[in-house]
Amino acid sequence: MSSNNEITDGIAIVRARSLVRDCGITTVPVDIDLFLAAAKAEVHAREELPPATSGMTMPLGDRNVILINSGDSIERQRFTVLHEIAHIILNLPSHHAHDLGGAGLFNYARRPPEEIICDTFAAECLLPHEFLRQDMKDALPGFDFVARIAERYRASLACTASRVAFNAPFACAYVLSQERFVRFVACSQKLRDARFFISRGIQIPAASITGQSLASGQSTGSGVVAAHTWTNADRFSDVDLHEEARIAGTWNQALTLLWPEDGDMPDQRDLPRNSESEDEEPLLKELDGILPWPGRRRRR
Fold first, then answer.
1. Partner of 172 for a Cys bridge, out of 82, 188, 206, 287, CB 3.0 to 4.6 A?
2. What is the pLDDT of residues 7-27, one digit of tens each?
3. Which domains does the chain have, with CATH numbers?
């Protein structure tokens, strides 16, 4: 088995896809019991878990007992189980809540890399690539399509939006913000090829639809904004983006989808190789958009 230092997001995805095949997953929503059997684990829902604790795993002989929060939605519970299975399969440690400090539990920017890798593994199992690739043939930009996929896979809107954006056949970006700051970005291949970047850690632009929705207290928003509202890449200076926002007040999060209006994109023939500027980030890894909370033992 690989050591903890050798596990990357890419390895996690490969291992997740292998597990999907080994478990004989042939339909969606995926059967969580098949994954539990492969991990020699059993799951129990508990009311006594604190609201900020989604789940944890306790070894019991040659088996593992996964406890999940019965107060969470079914979609979140399914993700929690797969996240805990990731710790088992990848042999990655969980980090105690007190290691992060009280505020750290709700600050995704401070989550350990092991937890993020397990998120990636869980998202790949929950929305398997082979099935999602087929569904993406009929993909349309916007949360209406994301919501249909989320219902089909019994996954959260945030997790699904990240996977849909990353695998979209058209130019599309997904932004997860928390406490009004950008935490994660997932871009489709067309936007990655076009060197479209949104920096993590920046404040949500006030002129964006998301920023306006937060300022007005609206739970949703939709409209067209200039691309430079979100990115400082000069080649997008004349591009307009359609923006849809969904505000998730429970964790003070905002979900944003962006795509070029009428497919408008810079001419790729004018884009030199290795043209990233110092202001642009390298390709951001695919993330699920769920914010599980780490805790004691294998607690998230």
1. 188
2. 888 899 999 999 999 999 999
3. 4-126 (1.10.10.2910), 150-270 (3.30.450.20)
